[in-house]
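Section 4.2 – Deliverable D4.2 (structural model, holo form)

The reporting period included a commitment to supply a predicted holo structure for the target in complex with copper (II) ion. Inputs used:
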Amino acid sequence: MKIKRVETWLTVMFVVSLCFISFALAEEQKHIMVTPADLKWADAPTVAPGAKIAIIEGVLKEPMPFTLRLKLPAGTKLPPHTHPAVERVTVISGALYLGIGEKFEPKNAKAFNAGSVAIMPVGMKMFAFTKKETIIQLHGTGPWGISYIDPADAPKTK
Ligand SMILES: [Cu+2]
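Output (structure tokens):
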């Protein structure tokens, strides 16, 4: 019987969505408290040569909140790119030179020193560079990623 099947299907969908909601709540209630010494830095050659990443919260490829830090060596260049999610950058130390646009034009970049925040909408074209070692924190809601305007700009990983 068709109606019965639709009802069963709706019940299944309802239970499935309840599971997702309780999973999401459980996710929210978990607490994370870290000091700089607790951060676990890993090499991040896909970000830039010599870059390091410390994931504080979340799984970057998943549709969930994430918080991470990037340690960028002096002289790092992040060629023009976009992200599939809102980018929220907080500069923790050093200075991030950030520019808007699809061309890498250092003169169009502004220095964001420690304590600065920048929030860029989905798909905004931007580039960045450092002059000294700089730590930035990114947070937002994934899935997170990066697309280079010129695919040839993607850092080579071996
Ligand atoms: Cu970016």
